[in-house]
Structures are given as C-alpha cells and as structure tokens.
Design brief:
The structure holds two protein chains of two kinds. By secondary structure, chain A is an alpha/beta fold. Chain A has helices at 64-71, 105-112, 130-142, 146-159, 175-187, 205-220, 232-238, 256-261, 266-275; strands at 24-35, 38-49, 53-57, 79-84, 87-88, 91-92, 101-102, 115-118, 193-197, 225-228, 241-246, 249-254. Helices cover 34% and strands 24% of the residues of chain A. In chain A, α3 packs across α4 (146-159), α3 (130-142) runs parallel beside α5 (175-187) and α5 runs parallel beside α6 (205-220). Chain A is globular and about 50 Å long. Chain A starts with 23 loop residues before the first strand and ends with a helix. Chain B has helices at residues 2-29, 41-49, 53-84, 89-104, 107-120, 139-165, 169-177, 182-212, 224-235, 238-267, 282-287, and strands at 31-32, 35-36. Chain B has a two-stranded antiparallel sheet. The radius of gyration of chain B is 23 Å and the shape is globular. The relative contact order of chain B is 0.16. Classes of the chains: A alpha/beta, B mainly alpha. Chains A and B meet through α2, β8, α3 and α5 of A and α7 and α8 of B.
C-alpha cells in the first residue's frame, strides 16, 4: 500500500473542516506536572491557533508526550490551566482561579469529543472490525444514527486508502494500516483539534510514509494539529511552528526554518546535531 | 490454553466414569460375612433409561438453579470487581468484605445460616412465588439459588478482575480519548475484551455450580441429589440409586464441557487467525487425541 492511494479531501469525508469556536484553539498557561517527585512539566506555555500544525520535538523524557496527554486530560496537572476552544480542560473554574478542582467525569468526556488523539501503539479495538472501530464512538457517544455513521466511516476508510479493509479485524492489518484506521477513528468524531503522540514511532520504516501522507493531507486541509514526532522531514514540510522541549521546559519555538536552520539555544543545537 | 482446560475437563469426566464402573464391579464382587451384596442393576438402569417424574423434575431443577445462580454470580462478580477496582474507598471496602466472607466460609454453612437463621429468629419469612416449570413457589429454591449466586459472585469477582487487568490500558485511553465515559468504556471496550480471559475459568465455575447445587439438599430442595437421596434412604438401596445420580450429573457436566468449548472458540474472535477457529473434531476431543493437524496449544 503506497501513499499514492490516499485521495484528497480527508475532511470532506466528515463534512468539511470542523470550525473551532475561537482563533486560539489550544492555550496552555503555566502548566506544571509532577510524577511523584519528578517535575515533568515546568511552567509550560503553549498556544496553537486555528488551522495551525505544531510539531513538538525533543529528547525522550522531555515531557512532550506528557504535555499533549494533558491537553485531553489523560494526565492530571498540578497547577496551571489548559484551554481548548476556550473551555478549561479537566478542571472547574474556581473563585480565585488558582486551586484546581477536577471536573465531573461527564464534562471531561464531553470535552474529549472535540479532541482527537492518535497513539503510538494505535490502540485500535481488537474485537471490532475496521469500520466498527470508526463508527463506535459517533454512534455511542455522539448519538449519530448507524446508517449515517457508516456512510461517514466508509468515506473515511476510502480517504485513508483502506476501503477494502472495512470488515477486517485489526490483528490482520499491518501497523501502517492500523494507524491510518486509528486516524480515521479519531476524525469520525469531527474533532476541532487532533493530537498525535509519536504516530510513526512503532512502525516499520516502509510504513511511515503512508501514515505521514495522511497527516500531511490533514494539515493541508486545515485541521488544527499538535504532533509529537521525531520525523524532522515531516516537521520541515508541514509544521507552521516547531516547539523544542527539554527537561519539561519549552526551550525554543519558531518556524521550521528558524528552529532547524538557525537554532538560538545550545540545547536545540545539541539535540538537532544528534538527530539530523 | 483455553482448549486444554476443556480437554482436562473431558478427561476428568472420563476418569470419573471409569471409577464409577470400577466401584460397581468391586461392590458386586465383594463379600461381607460370607454373603454377597446383590447389586440390583435394574434399579440403576431404570433410573437412567426411564427416569420417573420426580427424577426429571430434579434434573430440571438442578439445571435451572445452576443457570440462574451462575448468571447472578456473574453479575455480582462484575459489580464486585468494578467496586474493588474503584477509586471510591467505601466501594473497595465493601467489595473486599464481601469477597473475604463468601470465599472464606463453607457454602453449606452460608446456606444454613442465611436460609434458616433469619427465619428461625423471626426476622423474615421468605416469600413464595412460582415461575414457569420450576418449583419457585418453594422459598427454599429461591433463597438457595440466591445464596449460591451470591457465593459464586465472590469467586467470579476475582476472575473478572483478572480479566479486566489483562486488557491493555491503551484500550481505556483510546476509549476515553473518543469521549466515552466510564460506563461506555467498560461495557463496550474493556469487558468484551476481558470476556476472552474470563470465559475459560467461568466454564469451570459453572461445572462446579452444577455439582454445588446438590448442597441445596440441606434446604430440602428436591434437586437431583436430594431426589435420589430420598429414594436411597427410604429403601436403603444406596449404591444403585447413587450410581444413577452420578450418571445424571455426568450427563450435565459432559454436555456443558462441549458447550464450553464452542463458546470459547466463538469468543476468540478477532484474536486468533481464522485457520484454527474450528478446533479439534468431536472425536478427537472425546478420545483425548492430539493429532498433529489439530491446534490444541495455547494462544
């Protein structure tokens, strides 16, 4: 399966570009997180604007995966605030705005509907076929009727080049195919924001291209995306902004050209010299 | 792994069959003070070939009680497992107390204490009502089934918990990231995958349940064992009636052995390749042969 089978207009399959309500889709302010005594995020600030693709790079253990997991509240934070579409994620607004009180499960689930996530290990549901994986959440969570969900699901499968795999279970698909279905599954919820957590790190080299191609398509069509990735070629080509993290701190950010060609920070230079 | 449990089950049943036969031969040949015990084959034979109404009734009662008690056990087991894994401390405490008590005391004691205790202490009078072909107008049947189910729930809780823990945490994260709440995540994503791990031990639990219903004789419930036991004690013909009793239990457990194999193959959907879904043939499994063409090994 080559990248050329990916046709245009991924977002057409879900009825156009989902419009975030604000121009700043993600606004993380002074986010701090500890794992026990380990301070993994140190007053991290990050803004992502509508239709922007931000690629987060950095050595392992730098907190980049943790940061995007905080954006859909798969991880708790200890201080700071993360807004997506203007809504405070995971916590209730309190009087002084300092103390964090975790929100009700129902509200958190509701917020996550707007945020698609693609995992390093795909995490497709093994007891469901490719199509069932895609239509499960729209039917169960959004309450879309089955026929409509199937139409959207089939369109998405076609756009990721896997129309023929509709009734196949994940264990019979290659890693690249599974990851493309995982992307389709997230898109089926019509999210305003997509998070990618090292989407190609678990793939065999020859399958990386087909997944990146789908992601490029998505970025070109105007999806708002945060991508944690070691794929520098992808970052250079697609990213509007590259964010370099190290030891829980945003070290440097700028356009791909600025960060890759003329990094200002020594840590960025050191990291890039190892990876490029 | 799943299939080898079935194999062991069938082998165990066969072994039990041989032992019963051996017992017949030994008793038929043994002498006591010079007199030979006259084993009345016709009594055993009649109870097997043309069982009378009360035997049939006992058989149905055993089947009905087993199924309902097991269903109750599964439901309670799932609830107790979820409670035990809950973030809420009181839920965890309650689940642990429940499991601790019902796994830590004999079933027969639980039956006596919860059925006779409250009644004799004039705390409650167990209600009566009848459903379908079963003698549910007898409160002992209802209460006996409930107590069996509650006892079973304590065992099922640990089995269900192990099943849930066997599911990749990434599955829960994927479900959450799609906006699923706890209930949806559990019912649609986690429990269906846990089922594959739960079902083999669940099959063994049901096999035990079929046999454990015989303990309801202490509540004077005329299930299979009590029915034969009453014949035996009134006629003082023990070997003959109990042999027939064994036969009927073996019929039930053997049928279940096959049903279990079928269910296990169905639930491995999406996790095994299609090639070995059919499993070993009936003949192969019955004879305990492991042909090279049959995939009996674990997954």
């Amino acid at each position: 399966m080559t990248a050329t089978t990916v046709s245009h207009d991924l977002l057409g399959a879900i009825g156009g570009v989902p419009r975030p309500e604000t121009d700043v889709v993600v606004d993380a302010r002074d986010v701090n997180k500890w794992f026990g005594r380990l301070h993994v995020l140190k007053s991290v600030c990050l803004q992502v604007k509508r239709q922007e693709t931000v690629v987060i790079i950095g050595p392992s253990g730098s907190g980049k995966t943790t940061l995007i997991r905080c954006v859909n509240h798969l991880e708790k934070i200890q201080s700071g605030q993360i807004f997506v579409n203007g809504h405070l994620i995971g916590y209730r607004q309190t009087g002084d705005g300092k103390k964090l009180v975790e929100d009700k499960e129902k509200n958190i689930a509701h917020q996550r509907m707007e945020i698609g996530m693609v995992f390093q290990r795909f995490n497709l549901f093994p007891h469901m076929t490719a199509l069932e994986n895609i239509i499960e959440a729209p039917i169960q969570v959004r309450g879309t009727n089955r026929d409509e969900a199937v139409v959207i699901g089939r369109a998405l499968l076609e756009r990721v080049g896997l129309a023929a795999k509709e009734n196949v279970y994940p264990n019979q698909l290659s890693g690249g195919q599974q990851q493309r279905i995982a992307i389709a599954r997230a898109l089926a919820m019509k999210p305003a924001l997509m998070l990618f957590d090292e989407p190609t790190s678990a793939l065999d080299p020859e399958m990386i291209g087909e997944v990146l191609e789908v992601m490029k398509e998505l970025a070109r069509e105007g999806m708002t995306m945060i991508v944690v990735s070691h794929e520098m070629g992808f970052a250079r080509e697609v990213a509007n902004r590259v964010v370099m993290m190290d030891e829980g701190v945003v070290v440097e950010e700028g356009t791909p050209n600025q960060v890759f060609s003329a990094p200002t920070q020594d840590r960025t230079k050191a990291f890039l010299s190892k990876i490029l | 792994m799943a299939r080898s449990i079935v194999m062991n089950g069938i082998r165990r049943v066969r072994l039990a069959g041989f032992l019963v036969l051996l017992l017949f031969v030994l008793t038929a040949c043994s002498t006591n003070k010079g007199s030979t015990y006259n084993f009345q084959w016709d009594i055993t034979w009649r109870s097997i070939v043309s069982p009378n109404g009360s035997i049939i009734n006992g058989l149905w009662l055993t089947i009905g009680i087993s199924i309902i008690a097991q269903l109750l056990g599964v439901i309670l087991g799932i609830l107790a497992a979820l409670a035990k894994m809950s973030k809420v401390l009181p839920f965890r405490v309650m689940a642990n107390l429940y499991i601790w008590f019902f796994r830590g005391t004999p079933l027969i004691v639980q039956l006596v204490i919860f059925y006779y205790g409250p009644q004799i202490a004039h705390i409650v009078t167990w209600p009566t009502f009848g459903i379908g072909p079963f003698q549910f107008s007898d409160p002992a049947v209802i209460m006996g089934t409930v107590i069996l189910g509650v006892n079973e729930g304590a065992y099922m809780a640990e089995i269900v918990r192990a099943g849930i823990l066997a599911v990749d945490p990434g599955q829960t994260e994927a479900a959450k990231s799609l906006g699923m709440n706890y209930r949806l995540t559990m019912s649609r994503i986690v429990l269906p995958q846990a089922a594959r791990v739960i079902i083999p031990p669940l099959g063994n639990e049901f096999n035990n349940m079929i046999k454990n219903t015989s303990l309801l004789y202490v509540l004077a419930v005329f299930e299979l064992f009590k029915t034969f036991q009453s014949y035996a004690s009134t006629t003082l013909i023990y070997f003959e009636y109990m042999a027939a009793c064994c036969f009927w239990y073996l019929v039930l457990t053997t049928i279940w052995g096959f049903a279990q194999g079928w269910i296990e193959r169905r639930f491995s959907r999406g996790t095994t390749s299609t090639a070995d879904v059919r499993g070993p043939s009936l003949r192969t499994r019955m004879l305990g042969l492991r042909g090279s063409g049959d995939a009996v090994g674990g997954h």
